[in-house]
């Protein structure tokens, strides 16, 4: 194995193990020693790839947000109708965000560790832009009335983030279907 391949393998192990630990225990409860022991590397190897625990968490969060964004986009893109794409994408976000690792890393620790502005910038790069693009297309095609896209995107994103947090703590398996139905009704109110 070459040095570049070995470095990439070390980086992947650090991301994999830190993600597992951050999801299970939360950012505050996980130490660097625990991460490097789990990954089977030295602290020097960790510092070769990341400036510290926060930088490692940032990389894990970006990975989680990218995965959620790809899942939402793939689900939405499977729908031929722009309206159905919006609804399917929003439902996919709710489902993906209720996974315990996604919930803990993306919705709870992300804003707390990185601060709201940085967390929001990562969210925009990963999935919020899909929502804004979908809303823009629906306005351009006359499905929903023209209005400023940014406030609407933030309102819908905030509502879905809050719903995902609530769903992740819910013990009632019917809550997801009820939340999706409520979200669909809320989205329907946007139509012309």
From TrEMBL:
Domain HTH tetR-type stretches: 8-68
Entry keyword DNA-binding: yes
TM region positions: none
InterPro entries per UniProt: Homeodomain-like_sf, HTH_TetR, Rv0078-like_C
DNA-binding region location: 31-50
UniProt cross-references to PANTHER family, sorted A to Z: HTH-TYPE TRANSCRIPTIONAL REGULATOR YJDC, TRANSCRIPTIONAL REGULATORY PROTEIN
Protein name, UniProt field: TetR/AcrR family transcriptional regulator
Protein's organism: Streptosporangium jomthongense
């Amino acid at each position: 194995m070459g040095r570049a391949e070995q470095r990439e393998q070390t980086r992947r192990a650090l991301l994999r193990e830190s993600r597992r630990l951050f999801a299970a225990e939360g950012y505050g409860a996980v130490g660097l020693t625990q991460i490097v022991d789990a990954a089977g590397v030295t602290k020097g190897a960790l510092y070769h790839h990341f400036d510290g625990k926060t930088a490692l968490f940032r990389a894990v969060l970006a990975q989680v947000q990218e995965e959620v964004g790809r899942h939402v986009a793939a689900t939405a893109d499977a729908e031929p109708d722009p309206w159905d794409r919006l609804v399917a994408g929003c439902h996919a976000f709710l489902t993906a965000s209720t996974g315990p690792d996604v919930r803990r890393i993306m919705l709870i620790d992300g804003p707390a560790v990185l601060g709201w502005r940085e967390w929001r910038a990562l969210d925009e790069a990963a999935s919020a832009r899909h929502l804004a693009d979908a809303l823009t297309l629906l306005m351009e095609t006359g499905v929903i009335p023209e209005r400023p896209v940014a406030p609407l995107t933030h309102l819908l994103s905030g509502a879905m983030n809050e719903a995902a947090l609530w769903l992740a703590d819910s013990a009632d398996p019917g809550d997801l279907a009820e939340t999706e139905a409520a979200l669909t009704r809320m989205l329907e109110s946007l139509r012309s």
